[in-house]
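Example record

The entry below shows one chain as it appears in the dataset: sequence first, then structure tokens.
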Amino acid sequence: MSEVFLGLGSNLGDRADLLERAVAALARLGGIARSRWYENPAVGLPGASAFLNGVVRLQTALAPDEVLRQTREIERGLGRDPLRRAGSRTIDIDILLYDRQVISRPGLEIPHPRLHQRAFVLVPLAELAPTLVHPVLGRTVAEMLADIGSAGVTEGFGDSPRAGTVPVP
């Protein structure tokens, strides 16, 4: 089994519901745990609605390319336009880390190339795995978060009893 960390975000529609529906769909791919949801302004999208973000830890037997295919399918099922990768969106699911693998090819970059620069990713990732080491940078999630801080990220937004481990159906 591989340990995969996925970043989830939404800034259109019922954000919390869309994120919960994405988590339920991801649970069909293996065992999962999730962070709380965190709100932050839309980075690089002036005037756009705020995002609700979180991180899911997925234990799966799926290969990286299959995880990518499945996450894209989940996005489409939740109303994401597959041709529009940037801008406002109902759901965004990014592969942040896949074990300690480093993959760089068109359409698949692992670890996520901007992971270490984004507080809205590092805050929820630190909730799940603060001592996890970035396979390229050699720094822990907690260290990377300390470097950039958590400005703009509202911690614990949407915390619910559903946060944490989600049983596999």
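Notes for this example: The chain has four helices and eight strands. The beta strands are 2-10, 31-34, 38-40, 51-60, 92-98, 103-105, 108-110, 164-166.
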